[in-house]
Amino acid sequence: MDITVSGQQVEITPPLRDYTLEKVGRIQRHFDHVITADVVLHVEKKRYTAEANVRAKGAVIHADAAGEDMYAAIDLLTDKLDRQILRHKEKVMDQHRSG
Prior knowledge:
This protein has helices at residues 14-25, 70-98, and strands spanning 2-8, 34-44, 47-56, 59-67. The chain is α+β, with helices and mostly antiparallel strands. It has a 4-stranded mixed β-sheet with strand order 1-2-3-4, covered by helices on one side.
């Protein structure tokens, strides 16, 4: 899986990049057909947000989350992505079983 991390109004430090790559990389354990993930981190005043677009076989999944710091926003984002990936996987498996 190819993961890109970029920032708007925030500098992406090596520890922040490593943390993001580790957390977002975990979504592949649920669904093997994930192709790419684009993660964008934002800061506006005291609001930290993280957005992701994940390309998987048969779908493009979008999620965003806001937190009190950047690491909390990344954690919330990966939780949302996990739920959406699992839902997509169930949908794909149901289509194969019924077809």
